[in-house]
Amino acid sequence: MNDRSRDDLAREANRVRAKLLDTVEQLDRRRHDALDLGHQIRVHLRQIAMVSGVVAVALVATVGIAAHRFAAAPARRRRDRWQLLVSLWKHPRRVLRSERPSLGSEVLRSMGLSLIHWVVSAPVRRWVIHRVEFPKALAAPPPNRRAGPET
Q1: Per the domain annotation, does 136 fall within a domain?
Q2: Residue 14: inside a domain
Q3: Residue 151: helix, strand or coil by DSSP?
Q4: pTM of the predicted protein model
Q5: Domain of 76?
Q6: DSSP codes, 86-140
Q7: What is the full per-residue pLDDT of the chain (151 aa) written as tens digits?
Q8: I need a surface site. Which of 28, 99, 106, 123 has the fewest CB within 10 A?
């Protein structure tokens, strides 16, 4: 009985081992398929074509609108200047009075400018620190030392 149970255990271990190897092979195949660019393009060709078409249409529309605005700019400027003169003639006080923007728009403008300044200045600051050699007198002290006179 001991030999029989040993044979059963060996068969069960071999079966589990074979199942584990099959699982590892499937995972390896899936990893290879996920990282294979050609395979991903073949699988997602319809989505890639649709996104490319949408991007192309958006690009053509943007270029068309920009070309139309560029071509119509002189006529629009003439019309706007004429309307300004007519409105200045009819209502001189209203045209010359400056209108202050609302508090909300001023706050949003200030926050937007602060965000733009932060986004632009951080990479520039890092670039300057890494590219420019400062004299020893201007160099920052090491992080583990306190700044101040040495004693």
Answers
A1: no
A2: no
A3: coil
A4: 0.41
A5: 47-94
A6: HHHHH-HHHHHSPPPPPHHHHHHHHHHHHHHHHHHHHHHHHHHHHHSPPPTTTSP
A7: 566 788 899 999 999 999 999 999 999 999 998 888 898 899 889 999 999 999 999 999 999 999 999 999 999 999 999 998 898 888 877 766 667 778 898 999 999 999 999 888 888 888 887 777 666 655 555 666 555 555 4
A8: 99
